[in-house]
Structure formats: structure tokens, C-alpha cells
Amino acid sequence: MQAIPFPEEPERILLILPTWVGDVVMSTPFIRALFERFPQAEITLLMNRHLYSLLEGSPWVSHCEFWPPRNRTAAAKQQHRELLSRLRAKEFDLAVMLPNSLRSAWLAFRAGARRRVGFNRDGRGLLLTDRVAVPNRLNREYQPMPLCDYYAVLAAALGMDHPGDGLQLFLTEEDDTAVEQRLRAEGVKAEQPLVVLCPGANFGASKCWAPERFAAVADRLVTEYSAAVVISPGPGEEPLAEAIRDHMAQASVLLTEPCLSLGELKSLIADADLLLGNDTGPRHFGRAFDTPRVTVFGPTEQKWTDTSHGSETIVKVEVPCGPCHKKVCPLEEQVCMTRVTVDRVVEACRAELAAVL
């Protein structure tokens, strides 16, 4: 597409980030490219507050704003008014929206950004000054498209080359030290192969492989490799992680009191010899740090998250009802998950570990 003309280079830019952990990680090539495209501009990132530690350590977080809670309490309304006041005071020349939401376009409009760039979808076209055609819509349906390529269409509209799909995250010394101390306190030895299990999925229960199967795989990795198995769930996923520990015959480390922060989870995964989990946010941490990965796929379409990062084995089965993208399977048996066997996942883990051990 033809790039949007800028008679004058924007000096103040608002970049609205996605709200899902994995989507933010997959937006990092775009973020990096935007800073390179407008090196003299002051770029403010707007994100959910808990995602800050995801980008902490990067050169991109000098100017950040955070969404208020999504509720109708007086406190949340006051925080929203204060956010709008701060954004208006910055007098943005340009606002770029990575999310497709009406909410993001409405905020950019109310903040008074002079140019507002985003995909023309979900009824928000009138709020944009520069509407970018949706590249993957066909007959009112959205066709699977790698998210990095999707964001690259916005990049082209801003006169940027394709940012590529090299995901990038940064570590902090504080998080590295906290994780190292915690693992040593749990008895993990430096010479042991480190296998990290991230068994949850905020998307919904349909993405989660059975805890007893994760446990069976983990037991075999301990037996065969003397591996240290560390189970690291996100908040709310503690029961699932505890079920894996309870089903294991071998010892494991359960990080739930408290759960790791996103920053600490980055440090853990960056140091791991293998990351085993579902199609969920931490998988993309492994990509950013080139950690070998085995990922169990169920109801979701793999193409949405495709990148050229190596060192990953996808374990999935083709089923007539999938990929359905339903958060809860409506069938009596969720065959896309139950047909993924322990033996297949163990073989995938062996293949990934063979390259690093």
C-alpha cells in the first residue's frame, strides 16, 4: 500500500499496544522498527500495567502510560479522566493502534491525536484519520495470517520496511538474581538440565493439555536426563500446576508462592534448556530467547503465531472440528487434545534436548 505522507515528521507519538501477553511479544519487531523510523520522536507506549515488566529492560519504556481498570467504579473512572488529561497535554502528532478494538481508537480520538492510524475494522473507521485496509479479510471472514505480517501492514502504511519476525525481549539484573536465588533455594543444581513447564493458558481451558500427561512427560525427562523440572504457572493457574506436581512420581519445583512476575518468567525461560507448554504467552518468551521449545497445540490455528524462529517442535493432531478457537470445547471429548499422546511429546522433547545437551 502507499505510505501515509507526513509533511512534517511527528515529534510526539502514541503507540497503543495489544492486551495479550503473546501479542505484545509478537509486536516487538514493530515496536523496534517504529523507534528506528522516528528516532527523534518521543514515543509513549500505552499498555495494561501488568505488561510493563514484559518490556522492562528494553530501550522502549522511557515514556509509558497504563490503562485504568475496566470497571465502572468511581476510582476507575477517575483514573480514566486523569489518563485522558495526561494524553491531551502531550499533544500527540500521531497515534498508532496495534489492537483492533474500538476502545483504542476512541481513546486516541478523545486524546486529540492529530493523525490516528489503525486497521479499518470493528466499526471504528470514523475515529481514524488514516484508515488501513485489513489485509486478511475475505468475504467478511478473517483468514489466518502471522501476526508479525499483520502488524507489518501498519508498518508499511507508516513508510517502514517489513519489521521482520525477530521477537525481542530484554532481561534485568534484578529479575535474573531473583530467579537464580529462588531456584537454588529449591535445590536446583546448576549442572542439571532445566526444563520449564508453563501448562496454563489465559485464553481458556480448551488450550490446556491434561495435567496428568504433562506429569508423565516430566517424569520421563527426570528419569532420562536427571532434569530439574520447574512448573511455573501464571496467577489463577495454580490448581493446574499443583495437579501436575501431584501426578508426578519424581520430584519437581512448583513456583506458586508467589507466582513469578512476567519479568522473572523471562529470566527463567531465557535460562532453560527446554520450555514445554501449550500455545500461550510464555511460548513467545522462548522464541525471543531462542530457548528450545515443545508446544502442544489444540483448538487454535498455528498460522496466527508463525515466525521463522527455530528450535520449536509443534505437537498437534488434525481433527475435522478444528481449529475452532473455542475457549471451552463443546464436545464430549476434546479430540484435538486427547489424541496428543505422551509418547509423541516425549519424543519431541528428546529431539529438542539433543541439540543442546
From TrEMBL:
EC main group: transferase
EC number of the protein: 2.4.99.24
GO biological processes: lipopolysaccharide core region biosynthetic process
GO cellular component terms attached to this protein's record: cytosol
Record-linked Pfam families: Glyco_transf_9 (PF01075)
The reaction(s) this protein catalyses: an L-alpha-D-Hep-(1->5)-[alpha-Kdo-(2->4)]-alpha-Kdo-(2->6)-lipid A + ADP-L-glycero-beta-D-manno-heptose = an L-alpha-D-Hep-(1->3)-L-alpha-D-Hep-(1->5)-[alpha-Kdo-(2->4)]-alpha-Kdo-(2->6)-lipid A + ADP + H(+)
Keywords from the named record: Glycosyltransferase, Transferase
GO MF, any single term: ADP-heptose-lipopolysaccharide heptosyltransferase activity
Family statement drawn from the similarity comment of this UniProt entry: Belongs to the glycosyltransferase 9 family.
Protein name: lipopolysaccharide heptosyltransferase II
Source lineage: Bacteria, Pseudomonadati, Pseudomonadota, Gammaproteobacteria, Cellvibrionales
